[in-house]
Design brief:
Number of domains: 5
Shape: elongated
Mean pLDDT: 87
Number of strands: 46
Radius of gyration: 52 Å
Length: 948
C-alpha cells in the first residue's frame, strides 16, 4: 500500500511537470481548475476592468485565454509574445480600436479568435500575420468599414468568419475573405450592403464557401451570375429588402445546385419573387419562413409544399389562424416547427398526409390537449409540446405513434397521468414532464415505457413515491425529481435496476429507501422543510445500504438546523465503497466524526459547506489518502494546522472561502506537494508580520495558484483595514529583534575577550607601535621645518640613578668637555604633555644617552624614551643612540625587553662597571661617541662593550 501511495504521488508530480505553470501569483487572472492535470491550461482574465493585456499574468503554456468584458483599447506587439501554445483567445466586449501589425505573430497555434463587440474600424494588411492555424474569426459588432486587400493573406486555414454588425457597404470589401482556400461560413449580417452581385467579384478561383448569412442588410438585389459558389449550401436573407422588395437574379439553376437551406425572416419580398426563388432551387431541403404572415395569407405555402426535395420546414413566429390547414399537401416533410404561432388547436386532418414526419414542434402555443392528428403520425420520433395549456393526457393521445423516442411536455398544466398513456411507446427514451401540476403517476410507469432512459418531473406537485411506481422502467438511467419535496415509501425505486443518476428533493424528517438502486452512481438529495422541523428517523441511514455502486453523493439542505443535527453518520456511507465525490452543504452542525469516511478509501472530492468545523479532528482524513479536491467554504475555520497533521499528498484543489482565517502559516502548504489551486477569498486577514511568511509564499511560489490573491483585503489591525493583503511591506518583518540582540551580545563578548587577550599579551607591542607612530609624525614635521638641534644629547635615566648622573656625568660632560645636555627635570617645558616633551627632547638633540640600570628597565617612561630613540635610529639610519650601562645585566634579564636586547647585540655600548678605576678612559669614549657625526649607523654596528 505504501508503495502504491508513493507511486501515485510520483505520478502526480510527473503530471505537474508535464503541465508546468510559470507563475501562480497572478494579479489580474485566474487559471481555471481542471480535474484532469493533463488538460489544457485555461486562463480567465474576464471582467477584471483591465485596460491592457496583463504583461506578467499569462503563463507560457496556456491554451485558452478569456480576456473578455474588460476595457482594453489597443493590442500591441508585446502583448502575446512567447505564447506559442494558445489555441483559443477571447477578447470580445472590450474597447479595442487598434491592433498593431504583427501583434499575433507569436500565436502560431491559435485556431479561434474572438474580437467581437469592440471598436475596430479597419483591418490592415498585416493585422493577422502569424495566424496560419486560425479556423474561426469573429469580428462582429465592431465598426469596420475598411478591409485591406491583403488583410486575410495569412489565414490560409480560416473556415468561419463573422463580420456581423459592421459598416461594410460593398461586396468587393469582402472579396479578400472569399478568396480564402478553406472558407466554409461567412456571416455579414447587419451591415450596409444594398446589393450582392457576383459580377462585381474578381476571384481567381471558385470559393469554398458553404454558408452565407446576409440577413438584416438593406439588400435590394441578390444576384449570382457567375459560378463562384459551387459549394454553397445555406443562404440567410432574413430581414432583407426595402422599398419594392428584394430582387432575386439567378439565371442558371446550376449556379446554386447545392443549396439545401434557405432562411427568410421578416424578409421584404413579393410573392412572385419568392416563388421565383423557390423555383430556382432544385435541392432545397430546409426552409425557414418566420414572420412571413403576409405571404402565407397569399398562399405561399402552396408553392412550398410543391418542393419535392423539402424535408424541414420552420414556420415559427407566424401568427396565422389555421396555419396547419395550409400544410395539408406537404406530405414530403420529415421535420415541422410550428412554435409560437398562437395556435389553439391543430386543424383536423392537416397532418394526416405527412406520413414521413419524424419531428414536430408545437411548443409555446395555446394547445389544451394533444392534437388528434398526432395519432396518425406513425413515423414520428420527436414531439415537442412544451409551454402550452395541456391539462390532461388521454390513453389515445399516443396510440399509433409507437416510434416516438422523445416527448417534451414541460411547462403545461398536467395534473395526473393514466396507466395507459405511455403503454404503447416501446421506443420512448426521453420524457420531460417538469413544471406541471402533476400529483400522481396513476400507475403509468408500472408497466413501461420499457426503453425509457431519461425521466424529468422537477417542480411538480408530486408528494410521494409509492411502492412500484417505477416498476416498468427497467432501462431508466436518469431520474430528476427535484423541487418536489417527495416522501419515498419502501420499495418505491424497485424496478430501476439500471438507474445511474438520481436527483430528488425530500422533507427533512423523511425516512427514505433506495432499495433496488444497485447501479446508481450519482445521487443528489435536496433536503427541504415545510412547517415545523421534525427530526429524521434515527435509523434513516439504513436506506443507503443498497447504494453499493455510488460514486457521487451530494446532500444539500435549504433550511436552518435550529440546533437539530442533520448529520450523516458513518453508517450512511458504509456501503459506498466506490464513492469518489461527496458534498454536504448545510447538513452538519459540527464537524463529522473522525470515522465518517472509514469505508470510502477511494474518495477524491470532499465538499462540506455551511458547517462549524472549528473542532475538526484531523483523523477524519486518515482513511482518504487519495483526496484531490477539498472545499471547506463557510465553515468557521480559524486555523489550517489540521492540514499539516495528515497525509494529503494528492490534494490539488483547496477552497476555504468565507471562513475566519486571520493568520496563515505558509509551512502548512509544504505538506501539500501536489497543491495547484488555493482559494482563500473572503477571509478576515491580519496585515502584520504574523502573515509575512504567507505573503512572501503567495508571491514567490511557482506551483500553487492562490486565486484572486491580489484582491484579498485586510481586516486587522484597524489602521490597515481595507488595504490589499499583498501590499503589506514584509521587508520590515525580516529585522528580527531577538537575532539582532544575539549578534550584538556575541560581538560584545568577542570584543571583551579580544581586548583582554591583547592587554595581557600584546599591550607593550601596541604601546610601542603607538609611540613609534607619534615619533614618525614628529620626525616628519621636523624634517619639513629643518629646525637645528638645541642640545648635544638628551640623557634618558631613571630617577633612582639621578645621583650618579649629577655626581659623575654632569661634571665631566658639561663642565670639563663642554657638552650641552638635556635633562628632563631641568629642561622639560612645564605644562606640556610629558610625551610631547620626550619627543621634543629626543628630536631636539643630536644624540640620546640611555643610562641603563635595573631601575631603568622597570620604568615605563624610560621604556618609552628608549623606544622613541630607537625608532629615530632606524628611521634616520644615523648614529644617534649611546647606550651606557651602570650595572652588569645578563642577557636573560634583557629578554622581556626585546628591543633593548636587540640593540645591545647590534651596537657598541659603554659599561661603567667595567671602567673600574679607569674612569678617564670611560669618559673619553663617551666624548668620542658624542663627537661622532651624522654618518650611517652601519659604520658603528659593533657588538660587545667598548674597550677602555
Amino acid at each position: 500500500i505504501m508503495r502504491m501511495k508513493k507511486l501515485l504521488v510520483i505520478l502526480a508530480f510527473l503530471q505537474l511537470y508535464l503541465n508546468p505553470l510559470l507563475a501562480y501569483s497572478l494579479r489580474s487572472c485566474v487559471i481555471v481548475y481542471s480535474k484532469n492535470p493533463a488538460a489544457d491550461v485555461v486562463l480567465n482574465c474576464a471582467n477584471r476592468k483591465l485596460t491592457t493585456v496583463p504583461e506578467n499574468d499569462i503563463p507560457r503554456n496556456v491554451s485558452l485565454i478569456y480576456l473578455s468584458n474588460n476595457h482594453i483599447e489597443r493590442i500591441t506587439k508585446k502583448d502575446f509574445g512567447n505564447l506559442s501554445k494558445v489555441r483559443i483567445l477571447h477578447m470580445q466586449f472590450n474597447k479595442i480600436a487598434h491592433v498593431d501589425d504583427g501583434s499575433f505573430i507569436h500565436l502560431g497555434a491559435l485556431t479561434k479568435l474572438f474580437l467581437n463587440e469592440n471598436s475596430l474600424t479597419s483591418l490592415t494588411a498585416n493585422i493577422f500575420q502569424g495566424l496560419s492555424s486560425l479556423t474561426v474569426l469573429d469580428l462582429s459588432s465592431n465598426t469596420i468599414q475598411f478591409i485591406h486587400a491583403s488583410a486575410f493573406q495569412f489565414l490560409t486555414n480560416l473556415k468561419n468568419v463573422s463580420l456581423e454588425q459592421n459598416n461594410l457597404h460593398k461586396i468587393t470589401e469582402i472579396q479578400p475573405i472569399l478568396q480564402l482556400p478553406r472558407l466554409q461560413k461567412l456571416i455579414v449580417r447587419l451591415n450596409l450592403f444594398t446589393s450582392f452581385e457576383t459580377k462585381d467579384l474578381q476571384l481567381n478561383v471558385s470559393s469554398c464557401l458553404k454558408e452565407l448569412d446576409l440577413s438584416e442588410n438593406k439588400l435590394n438585389y441578390f444576384s449570382i451570375t457567375t459560378p463562384i459558389f459551387p459549394h454553397l449550401q445555406s443562404i440567410d436573407l432574413s430581414k432583407c429588402g426595402q422599398d419594392d422588395g428584394l430582387k432575386w437574379d439567378i439565371p442558371d439553376k446550376a449556379l446554386l445546385k447545392n443549396v439545401t437551406q434557405l432562411y427568410f425572416c421578416k424578409t421584404l419580398i413579393s410573392l412572385e419573387e419568392i416563388q421565383k426563388v423557390l423555383q430556382s432551387l432544385d435541392s432545397l431541403k430546409h426552409l425557414r419562413l418566420n414572420y412571413m404572415e403576409k405571404l402565407i395569407h397569399k398562399h405561399l405555402l402552396a408553392t412550398v409544399c410543391k418542393i419535392p426535395t423539402l424535408r424541414k420546414l420552420d414556420l415559427y413566429w407566424n401568427k396565422v389562424p389555421n396555419l396547419s390547414a395550409k400544410l395539408v399537401s406537404c406530405s414530403q416533410l420529415s421535420e415541422l416547427k410550428l412554435s409560437e404561432t398562437n395556435m389553439t388547436e391543430l386543424s383536423k386532418g392537416s397532418l394526416q398526409s405527412m406520413k414521413r414526419l419524424q419531428s414536430l414542434a408545437l411548443d409555446k402555443n395555446f394547445l389544451t390537449k394533444v392534437p388528434d392528428d398526432i395519432r396518425s403520425l406513425s413515423y414520428l420520433e420527436i414531439l415537442v409540446l412544451s409551454d402550452n395549456y395541456i391539462s390532461e393526457l388521454g390513453c389515445d393521445d399516443f396510440l399509433n405513434t409507437t416510434q416516438l423516442s422523445e416527448i417534451y411536455l414541460d411547462i403545461n398544466g398536467i395534473t395526473r397521468l393514466h396507466s395507459c398513456v405511455f403503454e404503447k411507446l416501446h421506443n420512448l427514451k426521453v420524457l420531460e414532464l417538469s413544471y406541471n401540476m402533476l400529483r400522481t403517476f396513476g400507475g403509468s410507469f408500472k408497466i413501461g415505457p420499457p426503453a425509457l432512459e431519461m425521466l424529468h418531473f422537477s417542480k411538480t406537485y408530486l408528494t410521494v413515491f409509492e411502492k412500484g411506481d417505477f416498476q416498468g422502467l427497467s432501462s431508466l438511467k436518469d431520474l430528476d425529481a427535484t423541487n418536489n419535496n417527495i416522501r419515498v415509501k419502501h420499495g418505491a425505486f424497485e424496478g430501476l435496476k439500471n438507474l445511474e443518476t438520481l436527483s430528488i428533493s425530500i422533507p427533512s424528517e423523511q425516512y427514505y429507501n433506495f432499495r433496488g438502486l444497485e447501479r446508481l452512481e450519482i445521487l443528489t438529495i435536496y433536503v427541504y422543510m415545510e412547517g415545523t422541523f421534525k427530526h429524521p428517523d434515527p435509523n434513516y441511514y439504513e436506506a443507503f445500504y443498497h447504494l453499493k455502486s455510488l460514486k457521487v453523493f451530494t446532500v444539500i439542505c435549504n433550511i436552518d438546523h435550529f440546533g437539530f443535527p442533520l448529520y450523516i453518520p458513518m453508517q450512511t456511507l458504509e456501503s459506498m465503497r466506490h464513492l469518489e465525490d461527496f458534498t454536504a452543504d448545510n447538513i452538519y452542525i459540527t464537524a463529522p466524526a473522525p470515522d465518517t469516511f472509514r469505508f470510502n478509501t477511494l474518495l477524491k472530492n470532499l465538499t462540506i459547506r455551511h458547517t462549524d468545523l472549528s473542532d475538526l479532528d484531523p483523523e477524519l482524513f486518515y482513511p482518504i489518502p487519495n483526496l484531490e479536491v477539498l472545499d471547506f467554504s463557510n465553515c468557521y475555520l480559524k486555523s489550517l494546522d489540521f492540514l499539516a497533521q495528515v497525509d494529503l499528498s494528492a490534494l490539488r484543489y483547496l477552497k476555504l472561502t468565507d471562513n475566519e482565517l486571520t493568520v496563515i502559516n505558509e509551512t502548512v502548504f509544504q505538506s501539500l506537494p501536489a497543491l495547484t489551486y488555493l482559494d482563500l477569498d473572503n477571509n478576515p486577514f491580519t496585515c502584520d508580520c504574523s502573515n509575512a511568511g504567507f505573503i512572501q509564499w503567495v508571491t514567490s511560489n511557482d506551483q500553487t495558484q492562490v486565486v484572486n490573491a491580489h484582491q484579498y483585503t485586510c481586516s486587522f489591525p484597524g489602521a490597515e483595514q481595507g488595504r490589499k493583503l499583498l501590499d503589506f511591506d514584509v521587508q520590515s518583518c525580516w529585522m528580527d529583534v531577538g537575532f539582532l540582540c544575539f549578534i550584538s551580545s556575541t560581538c560584545l563578548v568577542v570584543l571583551t575577550l579580544l581586548s583582554s587577550f591583547i592587554y595581557h599579551f600584546l599591550r607593550w607591542q601596541l604601546s610601542y607601535g603607538f609611540y613609534l607612530f607619534l615619533a614618525f609624525l614628529y620626525d616628519s614635521r621636523k624634517k619639513k621645518k629643518g629646525t637645528p638641534h638645541q642640545f648635544d644629547a638628551f640623557v634618558s635615566y631613571n630617577v633612582h640613578d639621578e645621583a650618579w648622573v649629577y655626581r659623575e656625568m654632569l661634571p665631566v660632560l658639561e663642565e670639563e668637555q663642554g657638552w650641552r645636555l638635556c635633562l628632563h627635570h631641568r629642561d622639560f617645558q612645564p605644562g606640556k604633555p610629558i610625551m610631547e616633551n620626550i619627543t621634543d627632547a629626543i628630536y631636539g638633540s643630536r644624540k640620546t644617552i640611555c643610562v641603563i640600570s635595573q631601575h631603568y628597565l622597570q620604568s615605563e617612561w624610560c621604556s618609552r624614551e628608549i623606544q622613541m630613540a630607537s625608532f629615530r635610529l632606524f628611521d634616520e639610519q644615523k648614529d644617534v643612540l649611546i647606550l651606557l650601562f651602570l650595572e652588569e645585566i645578563p642577557d636573560q634579564q634583557l629578554s622581556p625587553y626585546y628591543r633593548m636586547r636587540k640593540l645591545v647585540k647590534r651596537r657598541t655600548y659603554l659599561s661603567w662597571p667595567q671602567a673600574g678605576q679607569h674612569t678617564g678612559v670611560f669618559w673619553q669614549n663617551v666624548r668620542r661617541a658624542l663627537e661622532t657625526g651624522d654618518g650611517p649607523t652601519d659604520n658603528n654596528l659593533l657588538t660587545g662593550p667598548a674597550q677602555c
